[in-house]
Amino acid sequence: MASKQIVSPLPGTFYRKPAPDQPPFKEVGDTVAVGDVVGIVEVMKSFNQVVAEEAGTVTAFLVDDEDAVMPGQPLVELDG
Amino acid sequence: MAFEVKKPGLATTVQDLGRPGYYHLGIPLSGAMDQEALIAANLLVGNDAGAAGLELVFMGPELVFRDDALVAVTGAELPPKVDGAPQPTWTTFTVKAGQTLSFDYLRKGARAYLAIAGGIDVPVVLGSRSTYALGALGGFQGRKLAAGDVLPVGAPQRQVPAGRSLHVSLRRNGLEDPAVLRMLPGLYWHRITEAAQGGFFADTWKVAPEADRIGYRFKGGNPLEFVPREPPFGAGSDPSNIVDACYPYGSIQVPGGTEPIVLHRDAVSGGGYFMLGTVISADMDLIAQLQPHKPVKFVPVEMEEALEARAERKAEIDKIKAALA
Asked: Which residue, B30, B9, B6, is CA-closest to B122?
């Protein structure tokens, strides 16, 4: 199966969880449907959801929680 | 003429060259953060330099045009697409009635400017069509664009062909790494120690993710150490506080001595934080193109150099005007 990537639409700070005390949106091995939220990018005091445009299974997170990210930077790798 | 907003982007606002003359009443300049880029976009499509366009921040909108329109995108490298087909930046192209203008992800810079022949025809408020979102003033209903908004476009002023381009040498969208902001130390410079003065220029700062049109915040440098003082009446005990004063556009305040904030086009006009000095006017447009986490250094200059830089920038804009006359 070809691997696909979900890229960051924005520059900012990447978060894997909806809130500090909640579990991550997705873990490695989880399935992702089109429209699923896989993380959040914070910029200009607003939190913006990163939404999957393709379906698949998460094989890897390419950045860590709270990492600085750039637009177009791959965040999540999907298989399938 | 009109277009409809299908997806608004992150913080897309109507901006022209701003609303000077009311800052003493607390109403800021507003207007395009990168004035030169908006001027270039307007002149490309045959508008007057100060027509209203859209400021696109980090992520572009999706716009459906109801009529044929000639447009141009300048500033940050935010690649435009018409019905999915890539279009050049700094170059005019046509969007036909029913077609969708969208944008690929940001490649370089932070803010792109979209000019449409005829200009965006929102009401003029206090002499400007610029959006001041914090005050719900001007622009489209005083706010950033939302899905479903329909924006009116004026009648084109001049006939200009598609494919008209601004020469690469006149496009300013590259920034050094680190970016350099020149500043004039100001009235309160003496409030920090000599070591802190040297450290402020020696440190490499990084754009904080919360930086916006109101102020550009920087972090990552060492906290500034203050010269001890007896707090003057009304200043309070925090050493970064002063007796309330005017805040110039471009002034650099450092609340608590930790994170410098350069006030930009939607800033408040006064308050009680000391200011290190002021970023020179020639470098204010550059700030518009700084992405979060971008490394930045501040460099001190004298008034003479600041005035020379201002004259050079005006000459650059004159070259753009001559090239697109």
From this structure: B30
Query: pTM score, two decimals?
Result: 0.94
| Residue B242 pLDDT > 60 | yes
Q: Is A74 on the interface with B (CB under 8 A)?
A: no
**How far is it, in rounded angstroms, from Cα B252 to Cα B31?**
20
∠ CA(B211), CA(B62), CA(B120), 5° rounding? 80
Q: Which two tokens stand for residue B13?
A: 């606002």
How many CB contacts within 8 angstroms connect chain A with chain B? 52
Any chain B CB within 8 A of the CB of A23? no
The predicted complex's ipTM stands at 0.84
Domain count, chain A: 1
Its domain, for residue A45, covers 3-79
pLDDT digits (tens, 9 = 90+) for B102-114: 999 999 999 999 9
- Hey, is the C-beta of B97 within 8 angstroms of any chain A C-beta? no
Domains and CATH numbers, chain B: 2-166 (no CATH), 179-316 (2.40.100.10)
Q: Tell me whether A71 touches chain B (CB under 8 Å).
A: yes
How does pLDDT run across B175-187, given as a tens digit for each residue? 889 999 999 999 9
Chain B residues touching residue A44 (CB < 8 angstroms) = 10-11, 57-58, 209-212
The length of chain A in residues reads 80
A71 with B212: Cβ contact below 8 A: no
